[in-house]
Write a structure and sequence with these properties.
The chain has helices spanning 19-30, 37-48, 55-69, 83-95, 110-119, 132-137, 157-168, and strands at 7-12, 33-36, 74-77, 99-106, 148-151. With 169 residues, it is α/β, with parallel strands linked by helices.
């Protein structure tokens, strides 16, 4: 039986840019495990009644590692705003003998991004979505290396997904 290395697809981007839509489509398309940090963090709030800081990422790393060790590719869906978290995802892939691909999703049209933020509905029960002001004030650092970037402004989800797949292949 021929085996190939699993891939960790590391998504990043501000809320309401289309990141989760693209990450879910990719996971479905390639039959990969899908790990969403928002889901983990909301689960911690609901089940443990605690203020969540970095715990969601830590649990996501562990779950991703379990899948990568089994040879299953993983799509990680999180804001992933800092070099620290980006490096942790990359190191996780390396430690588990997997490839990794960094993908940043953005919406360059501020009016469109704002409309998306103000009109979206939470997919995760109990999750309080950030306001447009909170998104604008988010501590999100630019990437300092070459990555795959998908700008969803003026495009349908399908168009953005086709662009993503063409850049991954």
């Amino acid at each position: 039986m021929k085996t190939t290395k699993p891939v960790l697809y590391i998504f990043s981007g501000l809320p309401a840019v289309g990141k989760s839509s693209l990450a879910k489509l990719l996971a479905r398309e390639i039959c990969a495990s899908y790990i969403r940090v928002d889901t983990i963090e909301q689960g911690l709030r609901d089940l443990c009644s605690c203020k969540v800081e970095g715990e969601g990422y830590r649990l996501a790393y562990r779950t991703a590692a379990d899948n990568l060790k089994l040879g299953i590719s993983v799509v990680s869906d999180s804001c992933n705003p800092w070099t620290l978290t980006r490096r942790e995802w990359e190191n996780l892939a390396i430690e588990n003998r997997a490839e990794f691909i960094n993908i940043e999703v953005l919406c360059s049209d501020e009016d469109e991004h704002r409309k998306r933020a103000e009109n979206r509905i939470a997919e995760i029960e109990g999750l309080n979505l950030p306001s447009w002001e909170e998104i604008r004030k988010r501590d999100y650092h630019p990437w300092n290396k070459e990555i795959i970037t998908v700008d969803t402004a003026g495009k349908t989800v399908r168009q953005s997904f086709e662009e993503l797949v063409s850049k991954i292949c």
